[in-house]
Design brief:
Layout (H helix, E strand, L loop, with lengths): L1 E5 L6 H9 L16 E6 L3 H10 L3 E3 L2 E6 L14 H8 L3 E8 L14 H31 L4 H24 L9 H9 L8 E7 L8 H9 L7 E4 L1 H9 L2 H11 L5 H12 L2 E6 L4 E8 L4 H8 L1 H5 L1 E8 H7 L2 H6 L4 E3 L9 E7 L2
Parallel strand pairs: 1-4, 1-5, 3-9, 5-6, 6-7
Antiparallel strand pairs: 2-4, 8-9, 10-11, 10-12
This protein binds guanosine-5'-diphosphate and magnesium ion.
The site of magnesium ion has 4 residues, from helix 1.
């Protein structure tokens, strides 16, 4: 899973990238800033995995991971209409997008706009995504028209349905800047998924506020209410400070944050939100060797979960011994959960819940 960071020049994308990944990529203040994309893998924090690891003291603790990608500058103006084409291609390969909008005032950092207005910048980013998608849709529409005469009767029917649907998507993009997938059937969804439309990706907007507003959520509320629907969820963070926080070790971090009134690192808030927006959940496996969080999609069943670990386990699946994390934690362990009647044997079709601790019985 890839989270791509999108934003106008000097909004603080690379700063936020560093805050998320703990990496030390050069921000624009270094004149040598290469303009290359940055990529890093981050462990998604999960206090439940920490608890389980404290309990089992395994040799290895394995988090779920997310790739974060930061792009070379997005420039406005300079005769360039919209995002650079090479960015759009990379953005299509992302699973979710994180907008970074400039919310800090600092004369020493050139602002491509005259004023600081994060809601305006988020809107213009959304618009760019809609433009890019419109181009895809229009290109496909003219392809359909071209291939129509060469197609068989059955193919034509299919093309006609696709065309009808694409015209709907086009109108939605033109009028609302996005197509609402809610209620669209599977055939239609598979059509739009094929095109990797950017406006259909889960989006989170982060307002990069000045140091004075660190820990203050009101800016996020203000920006959210200034955005037209459909608006992405908005969070506020003080990027520069958060980058410092990411560079501290655990003992220094808590003190530094409480001095600033920051209750939780922005990194944790963003990664959790991204995770949720991606429609992902985790299940756990535990033991003396390894405590591990595994990623599956919300709605996946026990066999799919087993498949994640090993295809043999899925093939020889007998039962999934299941304990919800909350039950495990409340009862202080498996035995307590069993005594409380909270230990379950589930079959292949069981829909795994976020936080389930699973032990698979299988036979190959
Ligand atoms: N004052 C202030 N400066 C920031 C903040 N975030 C980033 N900057 C500065 O803004 C400049 C551009 O940041 P950078 O992360 O490279 O922006 P990018 O072009 O979007 O990647 C750098 O000099 C950063 O140090 C912030 O929250 N407050
Ligand atoms: Mg940058």
């Amino acid at each position: 899973m890839i989270l791509g960071i999108v934003g106008w020049e000097n909004s603080g994308k690379t700063t936020v990238f560093n805050a998320l990944t703990g990496a030390a990529a050069q921000t624009a203040s270094f004149s040598g800033s290469s303009g290359e994309a940055n990529m890093a893998v981050v462990k998604v924090p999960d206090p439940r995995l920490d608890f389980l690891s404290d309990k089992f003291k395994p040799k290895k603790k394995t988090h779920v991971e997310l790739k974060v990608m930061d792009f070379a500058p997005f420039r406005k103006g300079q005769g360039e209409k919209g995002f650079p084409a090479k960015h759009i291609a990379s953005l299509r390969s992302c699973d979710a997008l994180l907008f970074v909008a400039r919310g800090f005032d600092d004369e020493s950092v050139p602002n491509p706009e005259d004023t600081v207005n994060p809601a305006r910048d988020i809107e213009s980013l959304m618009l760019e995504l809609a433009f890019a998608d419109l181009e895809v849709v229009e290109r496909r529409l003219s392809r359909i028209d071209e291939s129509f005469s060469k197609s068989s009767k059955d193919e034509r029917k299919k093309l006609e349905r696709e065309k009808e649907f694409l015209l709907e998507v086009k109108t939605a993009l033109e009028e609302n800047g996005a197509f609402a997938v809610d209620g669209a059937d599977e055939e239609r969804l598979s059509i739009v998924r094929n095109y990797g439309l950017l406006t259909l990706k889960p989006i989170i907007a982060a307002v990069n506020v000045g140091d004075d507003s660190a820990g203050d959520p009101s800016e996020a509320d203000r920006v959210r209410s200034a955005l037209p629907a459909p608006a992405p969820p908005v969070i506020a963070l003080a990027g520069k400070l958060e980058m410092e926080i990411a560079g501290l070790d655990d003992s220094e971090r808590a003190e530094f944050m409480s001095g600033l009134g920051i209750s939780e690192p922005a990194r944790d808030r963003i990664l959790r939100l991204a995770w949720d927006r991606l429609g992902l959940i985790v299940f756990f496996t535990v033991g003396d060797d390894e405590c591990r969080a595994w990623a599956i999609r919300r709605g996946d069943n026990a066999v799919t979960a087993a498949e994640k670990i090993h295809s043999d386990i899925a093939r020889g699946f007998i039962r999934a011994e299941t304990t919800a994390y909350d039950d495990f934690a409340a009862a202080g362990g498996f035995q307590g959960a069993k005594d409380a009647g909270r230990f379950r044997l589930e079959g292949k079709t069981y829909i795994v819940h976020d936080g389930d601790i699973l032990q698979f019985r299988f036979n190959v």
